[in-house]
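Here is one such tokenized protein:
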Amino acid sequence: MGKIIIENLKSIAKLEFMIPVSGVHILTGVNGSGKTTLLACLQRLTDSYAFQRHFRSSSNSQFDNFRNSKIRYENNGSYVEYRYRNISS
């Protein structure tokens, strides 16, 4: 079973989510609790452009909400981690 760890992304300070293998699941929470953020991170598993669509950043790093964000996918002892790279053009 895989796991996703999200830190400092939108309203999520830290979340460790075990990715279900199969079945039907319900994700609930109050407005702004991070449901859509979690789903966008899960979408990245099959869509390499998911972050660009869901987490648009400002060209001005002073206003960038994602500069301390980290998303880590783990599965069977292996992992890949994404961090925001503060690169301005």
